[in-house]
Structures are given as C-alpha cells and as structure tokens.
Design brief:
Number of domains: 1
Number of strands: 10
Order of helices and strands: EHEHEHHHEEHEEEEEHH
Strand order of the largest sheet: 3-2-1-9-10
Distance between the termini: 35 Å
Helix content: 25-40%
CATH class: Alpha Beta
Largest sheet: 5 strands, mixed
Number of helices: 8
Shape: globular
Radius of gyration: 17 Å
Structural class: alpha/beta
CATH superfamily: Metallo-dependent phosphatases
C-alpha cells in the first residue's frame, strides 16, 4: 500500500505550506501532488513556487497560475506578479492541465477546477448534473484509459474540502493549504492504495486539517506591504470569502 498526499491552492502562504509539509513528512509520505494555484493572495508566491518545485512529484495548473504570466490591469495582481522571476512565470505557463493514474483498480483523475477549464467553478452544493460533469472525458484531460471515465476525481479551486459518492464514483475537493474558506485550518488529502495496480484492491481517501500560525502569515503580508491586506486578513481569520473577486 502506498500513500499519496494531494495539496492545492497554496496562494503564497508559506506558514501554512510549511505546516502541511511537516505533517506530510511526519506520516512518511514521499509522493506529493499539487493541484495548482501556487501564487497570489498571500505575500510569498516566489517562495511557494520554489518549495513546490522541490517537494512535489507532479504540479498542475490552476487559474491563478494560468493568468499570472499574462498582462493584468489590476494593481493588486501586478504587485504579486512583480514578486516572481521571469523563470518562475515561464514555469507557471508550462504546467500541465491534469494528471491521471491507476490506484487499486480505480482510475484517478486530478485537475484544478473542472475537466473543461481552470476557470469553471464547481461547488459541493451545485446541481447533480454539474457535479456528474466532473467525471467527463474532454480534450483537455489525459484519458489514459481511452473512453473509460474516472472512478475518482480530485480537484481544488473552491477552497471547500469535501468528499461525495455520486453514482458509485468518488468526487473530492482537496480544500486549500493557504486560503481555506471552510475552516481556519490548512487542508490537504491522502490517497492510499496500490499505485499503478489495475486489480481491484483496498482504496481510501482522507481529508486532513492542519493548524498553522495565521498571525505569522498576516505579519508577513503586512511587512511586505501587500495590497488588499484587510481582505486577506478576513479570509485567513474567518474562512469567509471576501466577495466577488476571483478565488
């Protein structure tokens, strides 16, 4: 049996990332997959990229990773963009859309937001039809098993961790490491099973919540003179979304 840690939505929050990685290490988990949104919102996007590059076996592209390398009118986004090197911006451009593998006979697919786009938002309370759409094969997904649709779908984006069984399949959101919007603790997931084994076997999925030093995250943002500090503080301390701006 092998364990895989799945993290997502770091958003430049290094104290949260360090706490999650420490918990993963304490469980002796060696394989880590990141579902995107390394940058923005928090003050340390550059360091987040460096750490993710070192610790993660696979990193896929989130919506922030997608629009970050492109010219933006928002002064706030420009401030965050200026924290990155040209090489880091190019790294974000080259991130893949999704990843797939077999585990204990199950086809597992992971992407940031949906199988169609990094910008299509699907919440746990959305319609059954919309949630079933998360299992579709598209031109953007790898489709390693041909026309077979995945048995397990894991994604990030909405910062709300959950697991649902839908028509005998598993849909799970990993939650957010650096900007959780359900509980004021960092979130990640652990998958356990026989990696690469096509025979049906034991498979488990676990959501993990990790406390971290929120005050330190706020202090680092204040010292960096990061824009929209009040909104950032609100989200970290209350786990309530600031409003209509992009997650």
């Amino acid at each position: 049996m092998e364990k895989i840690a799945v993290i997502s939505d770091i958003h430049g929050n290094i104290p949260a990332l360090e706490s999650v990685l420490a918990d993963i290490d304490s469980r002796n988990i060696k394989r880590i997959i990141c579902l995107g949104d390394l940058v923005g919102k928090g003050p340390q996007s550059s360091m987040a990229i460096e750490m993710i590059q070192k610790c993660c076996e696979t990193v896929i592209r989130g919506n922030w990773d997608d629009f970050f390398p492109k010219p933006q009118e928002s002064k706030t986004i420009q401030w965050h963009q200026n924290q990155l090197t040209k090489q880091q911006l190019n790294y974000l451009k080259e991130l893949p859309f999704s990843v797939e593998f077999i585990m204990s006979g199950k086809l597992v697919r992971m992407f940031h937001a949906s199988p169609r786009s990094v910008y299509e938002r699907v919440q746990p309370w959305d319609s059954l039809e919309k949630r079933l759409g998360m299992f579709e094969n598209t031109d953007s997904t790898e489709n390693i098993a041909g026309n077979r649709e995945p048995d397990v779908v894991c994604y990030g984006d909405v910062h709300n961790a959950y697991q649902q069984i839908i028509n005998g399949k598993i849909l799970c959101n990993i939650g957010s490491v650096g900007n959780p919007l359900d509980l004021t603790q960092a979130s990640y997931a652990i998958l356990e099973g026989e990696y690469g084994n096509s025979e049906n076997g034991v498979f488990s999925f676990q959501l993990v919540r990790v406390p971290y030093d929120i005050e330190l995250s706020i202090q680092l943002a204040r010292e960096a003179e990061m824009p929209e500090l009040e909104e950032y503080m609100q989200e970290l301390t209350t786990a309530k979304y600031r409003g209509s701006k992009s997650i």
